[in-house]
Amino acid sequence: MEKDLTYYNELIARYFSGETSPEETAELSLWLQGDESRAEQFRALHKTWMMLEARRVEETIQLDGEWERLSRACFGDDKLEEEAKVVSMDTGIARKSKTVKRWLAIAAVLAVLLGSFFVIRYIAGTSQTVELVAGTEKLEKVLPDGSRLTLAAGSGFRYKEKFDKDSRQVSLDGEAYFEVSHEADRPFIVDAGGDIRVEVLGTSFYVNTRAEGACVEVALISGKVAVYHQQRPEERIILAPGEKVCCGQQTLPAEKALTSDQNFLAWKTGLLVFNDTRLDEVVRHLNKTYRADVRLADPALGKCTITATFRDQKLESVIRVLTETLSLRWKKQGETYLISGEACHE
Amino acid sequence: MLFRTHFKGMVFYAQQYIKDLDTAREIAQEAFIALWEKREQIDMNRSVRSYLSSSIHNKCLNVLREQKKFDRSLLAFEGLSEKAADVAFSGEHRETEALISAAIEELPEKCREIFRLSRFENLKYQQIADQLGISVKTVEAQMSKALQHMRARLADHLPALLILCLYHLN
Q1: Which of B138, B147, B164 is the best residue to mutate to test the A interface, defined by the most A CB atoms within 10 Å of its own CB?
Q2: B residues 10-39 near A, CB within 8 Å?
Q3: Domain co-membership, A142 together with A235
Q4: What is the phi/psi pair of residue A203, to 5°?
Q5: Contact residues, chain B, for A10 at CB < 8 Å
């Protein structure tokens, strides 16, 4: 028995409302085919509906809210964009500032990078001290004060089960990302090895005590942090969102710079972004992020550049994409990935 | 500004495929994020719009495929185009807007309420039925009725819209 027109009109309305099942969608499609008057009817209803939808989009989409959402995704924070604009005016390098703006924004963090030889010097009491060690996977933990910790694989972290009344002292050997709950009268202080301290005044941040250059790098997106030597707390440097600083054991916190690289957080976010990045740089990031051993057969290959974004990819698929894009070859020998091929021309 | 000029149009474009406003918004957001990420490679003045719309087109088809609702011939019947999206947001449609409002007002009360809940409160048929204590069947019938009414009332203005589309295509 043929279904009547009312049925199909309802089906059409339901289809436009997004309420049809795959089978019904197919049924509608079939009904329309080969019958011009039905198709005509459908098209007229479709146009009507689209006028209604246009009005609906016009009325219900809040551009300010959407823009905020987008900036959060692209820049990390609205305010950062403002700051980045100021930066670009200062330097007057428009092109560059664009890149800066992006990097700036994405790092809502504090990165503290220190030489791998540092040993944690932990001051805390004996029995209450909790020691965390992340094995091959990152480790997430809520601290007693409600702050959140993400500890990178292979990193160690210590804290007192009960924080002191006047400060929240923790110590780190390796990499971690923190979201610190705000307590104005109880600063959150990270012992980053030696006497380097990172004092947090309520924000999210990232710490790595094992980066290259034997320095503590701190990059910030929102909130406020201070970096200083315990012996010279008055010579602290306070960071604003989007800024980073490098602090060695013997040197004062150096000049502030703008964060230019979001990939240092890749182990947490699963996101690696390369923008015209040299292959040797890419390999360095891969080795760090995946704790892997990727090598270039010929250092000249390092000159090749690549632009790509990887989200939660396995190392092998990243390597496959890289090598295919650059027409290179790769092979796995034991735990080592070896990339070889013709070096790129400029 | 690029975003303000294009965002609603792009949501509308996605909505034509997806028929779910929240998903359409997400897709438009993703397209803008992708645009942002690739901004170095794109000639911002020339191809930004075609970049956005082709990225939305592709994303939408993927979503439809996932939902198993991808049907090429049905899409062809709908004749979707981002040009239409432009037209709808060119600001030349103040009169038709008033007309739409009037047409909605003319709907019988119950029908209008159902239509409003579906279109402006973004509720699913089932949610409307629950809220009003009626059957889904009734919601379906009333929505269809509302659409028929709208078509009758707006029919005169459809050619105008179409002509505008063609104008913009050239």
Answers
A1: B147
A2: 11-12, 15-16, 18-21, 24-25, 28-29, 32-33, 36-37, 39
A3: yes
A4: -170, -170
A5: 140-141, 143-144
ipTM over 0.90: no
Which residue, among B151, B70, A29, has the nearest Cα to A8 in the 3D structure?
A29
Between residues A117 and B41, the one the model is more confident about: B41
In a domain, A223, yes or no: yes
Helical pair A315-325 and A279-290, crossing angle rounded to 10 deg: 170
Name the pTM for this structure.
Answer: 0.46
Q: Compute the distance between CA of residue A33 and CA of residue A29 in angstroms, rounded to an integer.
A: 6
> Running DSSP on this structure, what letter comes out for residue B156?
G
Which residue among B21, B39, B147 places its CB closest to the CB of A49? Answer: B147
In chain A, residues with a C-beta closer than 8 Å to the C-beta of B148 are 9, 45
Q: Are A191 and A171 a contacting pair, CB within 8 Å?
A: yes
d(CA A340, CA A329): 5
The least confident of A63-67, A313-317, B165-169 is B165-169
CA distance to partner chain B, nearest, from residue A109 (Å): 20
Q: Which 89-148 residues of chain A touch chain B by CB within 8 A?
A: 98, 102
Residue A184 is classified by DSSP as T
Query: Looking at the domain assignment, is residue A78 inside a domain?
Result: yes
Please name the residue of chain A whose CA is at the shortest distance from the CA of residue B146: A13
How many structural domains is chain A composed of? 4
Judge whether A118 lies within some domain.
no
Look at A276 and B40 and tell me if their CB atoms are within 8 Å: yes
DSSP string, A272-307: EEEEEEEHHHHHHHHHHHHT-EEEESSGGGGG-EEE
What residues in A contact B146, CB-CB < 8 Å?
Answer: 13
B105 — contact with chain A (CB < 8 Å)? no
Its domain, for residue A50, covers: 5-60
pLDDT at B148 over 70: yes
Per-residue pLDDT tens for B68-117?
888 877 887 777 655 555 555 555 556 677 788 888 888 999 999 999 88
Residues A151 and A195 in one domain: yes
A165-181: average pLDDT? 84
Residue A39 has pLDDT above 70, yes or no: yes
Same-domain check for residues A153 and A253: yes
Domain final residue pick, A75, A106, A137? A106
